[in-house]
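<given_protein>
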Amino acid sequence: MTPNNFLFRLNLPFESIPFNNQITPSELLIIGDVHGDYDDLVEMLDAHSGADITLLGDYIDRGPQSGKVLNLLLEQNERLHLLSGNHEVNLRKRYIEKRTTVGRLQQDTVNQLAAEDIDENDIRDFLSNLDTYRAIHYADRDFILSHAGMEPSLTLKLEIKGGIDLVPSEVFIYGIKKEGESVYNRDVDFEWVNHPIKKSVMIHGHRNRFGRVAMTDKDNKATAINLTDADTSTFRYVIIHPDKTGEIHIRQRFSNDEEIVSVDL
């Protein structure tokens, strides 16, 4: 999506996002922040071969297997719907834009990628397959999937001044920045559920300082699902079935110890 197209899309009523991807797989599998956890990721992909699969970004950093994760995603990119997270933006900055980066990418991930013989061309191919969000219709429900989630009251009040100042990452990868306030300190799930827009289910990763897993509407239907945690200790995913039920899995990384939260949609 070009910046011009994105700005045009933002100027439409939120309900106009085209949920025209009518899909009929046996189930949806939506995976939150992977963060270098190859073992759990490959197990999930193998166990759900018939599912429509979306990954919400942040594939690298923090965990020990970032190189193996990228190789796996490069091999299976035609099978998977891959969204970008903020850690993929750092990949672009370092390898494509040749900018200096700090943190885990500089300290650990660079070595992990090199150990798997991943070069700049591989990274360019990987980044070219990433979308900013996905809007789909399944089991008579609309779903909007993104890395950082949506805050409709802020999105709908955006004023675009002086041309293309806003890029897709500002909304879907980082969340909308508000002067004097950290995006991580805003409860995006509470904002979504309590906004008049109730037609779609939001599923995201990236930020979870409020302990949210699923928030429901007045009919006890899940309206917002958060697939990340505050300390990256868990690998989180949700399975959604054609009967409008789902299970949110909260697995301790590199183990089979997990909690399952059932939801109606």
User: Anything to note?
Assistant: Confidence is low (pLDDT under 50) at residues 156-168.
